[in-house]
Design a protein that fits this description.
single chain, about 280 residues, alpha+beta, 5-stranded antiparallel beta sheet, 3-stranded antiparallel beta sheet, 8 strands, about 35% strand, elongated
């Protein structure tokens, strides 16, 4: 009997040892005493000439200044935006009235020296006009509105007032003057002059700052330019809703229009390096 007990204990001990060996060798419980390898460093990104390169150095170096150059110019172009609006009971009637009035306006523009190439249609629209009917409890059509707008470029500045007077007389109560602005036909030479002034202004500022700081100004390392469009607008000439034709009153005097002057402005932002002392 003792031999049987001893045999049983020996078998149990063998099973325990075998089980411990199996769990100790499982991959989930394995222990690696060697330290992990360091991750490989990524190579620097090579960018083609057309790609944007990002600098990780956010430090601003040198002297950053802005300069402004301004040139005052007398406009040589007037751009007149005008239109015809007609409202009638039917589309055909409204279209006919608007076409007749616009034909007279176009003739007045050309007869006063505006070239056909300088007249351009910008907007044409036919809209149905409705109102709410309380009895029917629905929208009912009361007519149709035709709107036709053109933009005319006037090159003879002395005739601006005369032309406005002529188109108002030609279009009658259908006429709408929406906008008038003055500009320079070719401002490139004035921009060149303003740019030179802006560069000189920026350099004067940078040299003064460097002198005050006991430094010597170096070469520009960054230049950025911004410019304003040289346009002067005139508001409130004549606009509003549609008015039905009425008997024409006595001719009104031509409006007094003065183009005045416009300003061409260029702003330069420049960064200068600091030169090494000799």
């Amino acid at each position: 009997m003792k031999k049987g007990i001893i045999l049983t204990l020996s078998m149990l001990l063998a099973v325990v040892l075998l089980t411990a060996g199996l769990f100790g060798c499982s991959p989930g419980n394995s222990t690696d005493t060697n330290p992990p390898a360091a991750p490989a460093q990524s190579a620097p990104v090579q960018s083609s000439p057309s790609e944007v390169k990002v600098s990780l150095n956010n430090q601003v170096e040198g002297i950053w200044v802005s300069g402004t150059g301004k040139v005052t110019v007398t406009p040589d172009i007037a751009t007149l935006q005008l239109g015809i609006e007609a409202q009638e009971a039917s589309v055909s009637e409204a279209q006919a009235k608007a076409s007749e009035a616009m034909d007279r306006v176009m003739t007045a523009l050309i007869d006063n020296g505006v070239a056909e190439k300088d007249i351009q249609t910008r907007y044409f629209r036919i809209r149905q006009r409705t109102r709410w009917d309380e009895e029917q409890q629905q929208e009912v059509v009361i007519g149709y509105r035709v709107t036709n707008e053109v933009v005319a470029k006037i090159r003879d500045m002395e005739k601006v007032s005369t032309i406005i007077d002529a188109v108002v007389a030609a279009g009658g109560d259908y006429t709408r003057i929406n906008n008038l602005n003055f500009s320079v036909d070719d401002p490139s030479a004035y921009y060149d002059e303003a740019r030179e002034k802006a560069m000189a202004d920026a350099k004067d500022k940078a040299e003064q700052i460097a002198s005050l700081a006991g430094m010597k100004l170096g070469e520009p390392t960054y230049i950025s330019e911004s410019a304003a469009s040289p346009v002067r607008e005139v508001y409130g000439l004549m606009s509003g809703g549609v008015q039905m034709p009425v008997p024409a009153p006595a001719p009104a005097p031509a409006p007094s229009i003065s183009p005045g002057e416009i300003e061409i402005s260029v702003n330069m932002q420049i960064a200068y390096s600091i030169a090494e002392s000799e």
